[in-house]
Amino acid sequence: MMQTEITRLFSIKYPIIQGGLQGLGTSPLVSAVSNAGGLGLITAGSYEDKQEMLKDIEVVKKNTNNPFGVNLAIGIRRPMDEFVEGVIEANVPIVFTSGNNPEKYMDDLKAAGIKVVHVAPSVRFAKKAESLGCDAVVVNGYECGGHPGKDDTTSLTLIQKAKKELSIPIIAAGGFSTGRSVLAAIVLGASGVQMGTRFLLSKEINLHQQVKEYLENMQETDTIMVKQSIGKKARVMKTEHAMELSHIEKQGATFDEIFPYISGEAYKELITTGNLDVGIMALGQTIGLIDEVKTVSAIFEEINEEIQLAFREFLELRI
């Protein structure tokens, strides 16, 4: 497997980072990703409070000797102050931030010796993260699950643009789930990739089996953009419920009418009970390339084999 700036920065075997998965980025998945040689990320927003997160961090530490980190979504659902405190208390070596500007936390995180990576949907925001002292940046392309930003720029363009204008390592997100896509990201200028959708179909993730079975049969066209009317555009799994949300938004629904569809409680019911008639779940277009639930270790083995095959095919080309 190739070594890159990202594998060296995080002391990991593969340049693959697990995405911040609300309610799902918890110890079983995080431990499995780190044990497989990638970087697992605890998702702080999955926990009621700092103490609950700290308990799960201890579980990760017991289950893996490899590096892992914490994802902090700033200003998305609730304040992250206590979770930043928890990260520092637990001596977590790596933090990924997303959402709003992480500037208010940078001094404390850097003083604790923590490597900080910010997720940005545009080169403009990525350059701001670099100026704040971030050690690396994730550039989030239009194909991604969740929030792609306002510019609708695909990963194919965004990675190359970021490579031209940034000096810190770049991690590509949005459309990456296979070995071929990892290799493509590296060729385009990234030093690693972040995958969220791929791990939804892992055996270790705490996602209801009924949702996994639904995902197994989905294609790249089976996502839908919602929350556009409130300025928080998100790509989500296409269900009857999500399409209904899209419809009422187009009809001019108020926030009070939209809220039951997007509330945290509705989402929690979806992922824990498998009820597809409530909530919405972030999902990237790359779901069309995934059709089987596998262990995380098997996913990494498959990705590595695909990289080797694609690289051999490239070497055989006559240029």
What does this structure look like?
It contains 14 helices and ten strands. By secondary structure, the chain is an alpha/beta fold. The protein has two domains: 5-203 and 293-315, Aldolase class I (TIM Barrel); 223-282, no CATH class. The strands form two sheets. It has an eight-stranded parallel sheet with strand order 1-8-7-6-5-4-3-2. The protein has a two-stranded antiparallel sheet with strand order 9-10. The protein is globular and about 50 Å long.
Spatial order of the strands forming the largest sheet:
1-8-7-6-5-4-3-2
Strand content: 5-15%
The gross shape turns out to be globular
What's the CATH architecture name of the largest domain? Answer: Alpha-Beta Barrel
CATH superfamily of the largest domain: Aldolase class I
Tally of individual domains: 2
Element layout with pairings:
Blueprint: H1 5-10, E1 16-18, H2 27-35, E2 40-43, H3 50-63, E3 68-74, H4 81-89, E4 94-99, H5 103-111, E5 115-120, H6 123-132, E6 136-140, H7 155-165, E7 170-173, H8 179-188, E8 192-195, H9 197-200, H10 209-216, E9 223-226, E10 234-237, H11 240-250, H12 255-262, H13 264-273, H14 296-315
Parallel strand pairs: 1-8, 2-3, 3-4, 4-5, 5-6, 6-7, 7-8
Antiparallel strand pairs: 9-10
